[in-house]
Amino acid sequence: MATPDPALPIGKRIQWYREQRGMSRPVLAGQIGKNPRWLKAIESGQLQAPKLPMLLRIAHALELEDRTGRAGRPGDRRPHPCRQGEKGSGRSQLEPAQR
Length: 99
Fold this sequence. Notes:
Layout: H1 10-20, H2 25-32, H3 36-44, H4 52-61, H5 68-71
């Protein structure tokens, strides 16, 4: 599947994916537990972009790949790669982190 221009606002990207799937606004809204008017307001930029949990629900309904693992999750306590090997860690910066 092609992808929309990443410079598009999030609402326009949601609309693009919805239309690519051939899904109507009422169908997507129903799958995510929202009113079609709410979805229209998101897609048109009249409302602020939804928070991550809602974006994940939308992505799931549109059968999109979950990419949040690449960016990390809130509360993820793994050390930042630049901090690995700092004093006291017992590893050089070239050694892989133990998981």
